[in-house]
Request: fold
Amino acid sequence: MKLEKKIILQYLEKAIEAREKAYAPYSNFKVGAVLVDENGVETSGANIENASYGLSNCAERSAIFAAASKGMRNIKIIAVVADTSKPVSPCGACRQVIKEFATEETVIILGNLKKEYILMTMEELLPYGFEL
Reply:
């Protein structure tokens, strides 16, 4: 799937808006994500931390779990943004969760607050990911 730069920048902006809802009092590292499912429905998410750090949830998984609980089964586009010098990279757990709902056509947009970005396929993001 090809995306025009204008569309990419729109999704980066939506991920930046989602980032503002992050709850990150421990790391102060706010992340936002927005995804578009197979029906064109958008769902956003932000990272939510917990004093028991292992119980925290990343922005990507927050968005995916919210969308999946409403019936989403395929991600067309997912954009992730953080305040990083280069486009942010999802953690390993998020990569595997994205893979669960990605297709060969899924476009993954990694970005930062300066709206610098990298486009990736699922295979590029997680080669040799776990499958049954």
In short: The helical segments are 5-19, 59-68, 92-101, 122-125. The longest helix spans residues 5-19. The chain has a mean pLDDT of 97.
